[in-house]
Amino acid sequence: METLSSASQRLAVAAAELGLAPLRLRHFPEGTKTARDAAAAIGCEVAMIVKSLVFVVDDDPVLALVPGDLRVDAIKLATAAGGRESTRASLDLVRQATGYVAGGTPPFGHPRPLPIFADEQLGRFHELWAAGGTPSTVFPISHDDLLRVTRATITDITE
Fold this sequence. Notes:
By secondary structure, the chain is of the alpha/beta class. It has one domain: Alpha-Beta Complex (YbaK protein). The chain is 27% helix and 25% strand. The protein has 5 helices and 8 strands; from the N terminus they run H-E-H-E-E-H-E-H-E-E-E-H-E. Strands 1, 2, 3, 4, 5, 6, 7 and 8 form an 8-stranded mixed beta sheet that branches. It is globular. The N and C termini lie far apart (38 Å). The mean pLDDT is 96.
């Protein structure tokens, strides 16, 4: 783990604590910041990329896990979270809420628990790919493991 960034090292430790060791982190120097970038680097379908997106529902941050080929529906997310409105979180709030930068935010391993909502369309694939703590690091995870370790509420939150 010494060649990994400190953010990816923190994620690997969190994964081990959740029973996902060893986490198979892959580094792509050209970057995997967007779902399309990640899919191109990995050689998979864009829909297999898990986007971990921080939104603010009313006044509270929540994490939305959605397939790379779909967009979050802000109204559906707000409703799922029991709120009235939701907006994308600022870059500063993403880092504050998750401990990671936008574009590298993993679905777990955050410093404090966040409400997490996973779109039901993630279930189209058994193997998914998620951000590994930096905008150039990803890892594979099964759909079942993703839901187990995040304890996400599964719902329809995409357009």
